[in-house]
Amino acid sequence: APAYENIKIDVVGSKSNVGLIQLNRPKALNALCGPLFKELGQAVRDFDANDKIAAIVITGNEKAFAAGADIKEMQNNTYSSNVRNGFLKDWEDVSNCGKPVIAAVNGFALGGGCELAMLCDIIYAGEKAKFGQPEINIGTIPGAGGTQRLPRYVGKSKAMEIVLTGNFIDAHEAEKMGLVSRVFPVEKLLEETIKLAERIGTHSPLIVKLAKQAVNQAYETTLRSGLQYEKSAFYGTFATEDRKEGMTAFVEKRPPAFKNE
Ligand code: CO8
């Protein structure tokens, strides 16, 4: 495995099929500097390409998931340097992953940290988690999806409030508004998130991938073309061995043995 400096990776779960990525710049509250994002992208791509891995969990530590883009690193950026160097271009790696990516958020998920969590497919939170888009406090605006994903997930009024005030919201509020799907005690969060990944890992990886793509269409397109996409993908599952196995196993009252075919 590559030697990482800003993240730690591990393979976890009782079947060793969950890829765990821990953001690891604790002294900077996991501020998302360029090198960290390069490593994160590499780790996600490697797990995505690894047939033994069913799902990926991204986490931080108890104090911070990530407190945003690295303000010290970008302090002296200019408009021209941002354009020239494609500032933020590595961010798409996480959203390009075909496998489910789950964020386990303890502590701060602010700015780019909240946006990273929102790039993931599911967010679980520890009860001390704090979410926010505080860019407005430092004279800028969200730059990696905060103004676009947040309104789609929580609605306009709440998204505007979060983006225009810079105020933080706690885990229970985040759950109530649908940003987070479940909240756990701090010390249980990672274990519960890995359980979720393992549960997903009991299904056909091929069909999981199709299901993820179909749900994502709901955030990309109109209802009519999303429904059309869904129908085609649903019909398409009937061309797979795993669909046949799933239904045959049900009828024969036995557990399915999926083959990713
Ligand atoms: N960047 C760089 N360093 C940071 C960051 C950050 N975002 N956040 C915290 N740190 C550092 C602090 O500078 C401090 O370092 P040092 O000890 O060397 O001074 C250390 O982490 C600990 O932080 P604090 O002492 O401030 O800890 P507190 O517990 O007092 O406060 C807070 C915690 C409230 C989270 C506070 O640190 C804070 O407000 N952080 C900044 C949050 C923020 O504004 N985030 C948004 C950043 S802008 C952004 O994300 C734009 C996204 C655009 C797309 C992504 C681009 C890559």
TrEMBL record:
Gene Ontology process terms (BP): fatty acid beta-oxidation
EC class name: lyase
A GO MF term: enoyl-CoA hydratase activity
Alphabetical keyword list: Fatty acid metabolism, Lipid metabolism, Lyase
CDD domains: crotonase-like
InterPro entries: ClpP/crotonase-like_dom_sf (IPR029045), Enoyl-CoA_hyd/isom_CS (IPR018376), Enoyl-CoA_hydra/iso (IPR001753), Enoyl-CoA_hydra_C (IPR014748)
EC number per UniProt: 4.2.1.17
GO CC terms of this entry: mitochondrion
TM stretches of this protein: none
Similarity annotation: Belongs to the enoyl-CoA hydratase/isomerase family.
Protein name as annotated: Probable enoyl-CoA hydratase, mitochondrial
Originating species: Hyphantria cunea (Fall webworm moth)
Gene: ECH
